[in-house]
Structures are given as C-alpha cells and as structure tokens.
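Continuing the batch. This is chain 6 of the set; chains 1 through 5 are on the previous pages. Same settings as before, nothing changed between runs. Recording input and output for traceability.
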Amino acid sequence: MIEEVLSRENMLSALARVEANKGSHGVDGMSVKDLRRHLVQHWQTIRESIKKGAYEPSPVRRVEIPKPNGGTRLLGIPTVTDRLIQQAIIQVLTPVFDPTFSEQSYGFRPQRRGHDAVRKARSYMEEGYRIVVDIDMEKFFDRIHHDRLMAKLAERVTDKMVLKLIRGYLQAGVMEGGLVQSTTEGAPQGGPLSPLLSNIVLDELDKELEKRNLRFVRYADDCNIYVKTWKAGQRVMSSITAFIEGKLKLKVNREKSAVARPWKRKFLGFTFSWEKKNPRIKIAKPSLDRVKAKIKAITSRSEPIPIELRIKELNQYLTGWCGYYALADTKSVFQGLDEWIRRRLRMCIWKEWKQPKTKVRKLLSLGVSKQKAHEWGNSRKKYWRIACSPILHRSLDNQYWSSLGLRSLTDRYNHLRNMT
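Output for chain 6:
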C-alpha cells in the first residue's frame, strides 16, 4: 500500500488537490505556492525516508477560530509537505473504508453533502418520527483515542509503513507560542487526514445505531436520532451516551445535547417547521443572526468605504451563503434580506452625501423634483429613517442597485431552486 500512496500518479493528484485548496502555512512557514519548487529539490529524500519508516511529520501549527455560538475551535495546520502526504494517504484509504460506511453518514464523503443529511432528517419527520435525540460530542476531534483508532485501521490496512506514518501524524505534536506540546489523543482539525479518521472512529456508533434499528443522520460529530415518543427519546439518549463514553472513549456534552422537537433544534444550520405533512426546511435563527451580523459589518455607516466596494464584498459573501441556504423552503427570508440590504445601502449613501446641498444635488440628478429634493435634502431625520423613506425608495430603486452590480438573493434563490 505504501507504494500505491507514493506512486507518481497518486502524488500528482494529491499535489493538484493541495494547490487547489490553498490554505495557510505550517510551522515551517512554507506556502502552497512554494511546494512544487521544494519537491523538485527534496522529494526523493522525503520518499526514501517514508519507505524506510524514518520520516517524522512536523508538529501542526495551532490556530484558534471563533465558533458561531461562542468560544473557539482549535485547528492544527500541518506543513504543506505534510498536507501533501496526508492527501496522498487519504486518496488510497478512502476507497478501502468509505464503501463500508453507513448510508446515514454524510460528512466528508464523496458524492454526499450536508443538504442530503437535512433532507433525510425531514423524511424521518414525514414518517412520524417527530422527536429528535440531538447528541453533541464535546471536543470530539481533540478526544479521539489513538490506540482504538489504530486498531480499527489495522483491521484493513496491513502495510506497517502506512500505519506508522498515520500514527506519526497523530502524535506529531502541536506548536503553540514557539513551544511543541506532545499529543497523546485527538486528530487535529486542519489536515486532510482528520475527516476520514473521524468517520472511521464514528462508524462504530453508526453500526450500533443500525443494529438497534434506529433512524438517524450523522454529519461528522453532529448526530441526530429520530424516534416517535418522548420515552423512547430519553431511553435512547441514556443508552447511546453510555455507549459513546464507555465504548468509544469520547465525551457527550450534556448541556448541548437534548431530547426535543426537531423544530426546537438546529441541524447543520437548518431547522424545520412543525407540520406533520411536508414539514418545511427553514434557516435556523442562529444562522440568520450570523448573516445579518456580517451584513451589518459590511454596511456599517461608520466605515468610510466606497459603495462599490461594499457591494463587491456583499456579493462575494452572500453568493456562497445563498448557495448553501437555498435549501430552505422559505423564499420570504431571502426577499426580506434583499430589502434590508438595500435599506442599509441607502443609509450608507445618505451618510456618504453628507452636506444638505450635496444631497439636494444628488437627488435632483436621480430625477427627484426640485421641491422634494430640497425638502428631503434638508431633512433632520435620522439616517435609518431616511433610508426607508419613499423618496429614496423611488430614486435608489432595485434597478439602481442592479446597475451598481448588487446581486439579488431572491433571484439567486429562485435560480438554485429551479436547478434542483
């Protein structure tokens, strides 16, 4: 297997993937754009050390990123060389392990995505399973038990060099503040290996749930189990928590886990309506709060940013956001956001015009009558109030914003929904 990992075809494919993903540098400071030049000079030496079992992965660089619901998530960024080798390993191991994973596992798998998991959850609700056992695993990636993971790997991977290389990555350590700390458990998020390793660990949970004939969906460490009664939900929560903590040596976060109605919980940024027939997929309130906070930051009137740059940044952010959340059956949310965004941009323009004479001149140039231009140009009403006035609605209308390049969320939502 190590020969397959190090084959020219596999390594070139891994290199293309690493370069496409870009990403930050590791502890050695080398960027992705310098990787090819480095490999030309050093690949033969690296390859031989891997084959002999002498290769030592570098520690990962610790990075903290804020979580949407508060706190921070710890990432471990490998060097670009180690990312390349990890990617090469994943490309060989995925065909070995992925076909045996559960049909209800959707995270980090080929031809599967979060939308599929959300749709499956809705299908359970339509079948009458309207109680969800929402299990949250505390610091999952930081608590993966190395020996148990390596034992699972060894069941199908017989090449000792590959196993040694993977264990080397698990135990490479973390550099933080210039000091290297050893790692005795966990698989740091940030490298290509951790997603597959996490699925191998949690495949045991999937098999246990299947053995019990339970309806569930899992995306990485987000696991939702659907039952018909509150009593069944409490029983499942208790027994599955015992299995996760006793057998898998992981920890369930009891504060964030719950037995509840699906429309009272969020799953992958979505929630559901309560209807028994055809429950709708909705955007969860925390997800809406986050997008609104981002829009407010981009359209803050206290920041002296040209309107064209604001629109460019909005388009860049909202294109990806809409691409994910267009799964929701709530067109009105996208229409409401469009209206709110335009009002905030009108507020920014009104502030940008500053002096009353400038406001009058600009309004006149937009076709407003002289009387109305002087009336509103000299108004002492607050910016936010003016932004919703009939005069700015008519003069800075949808066509105006379209001419400046602002893309409509509603139009994109309709386009994406028509494609599915």
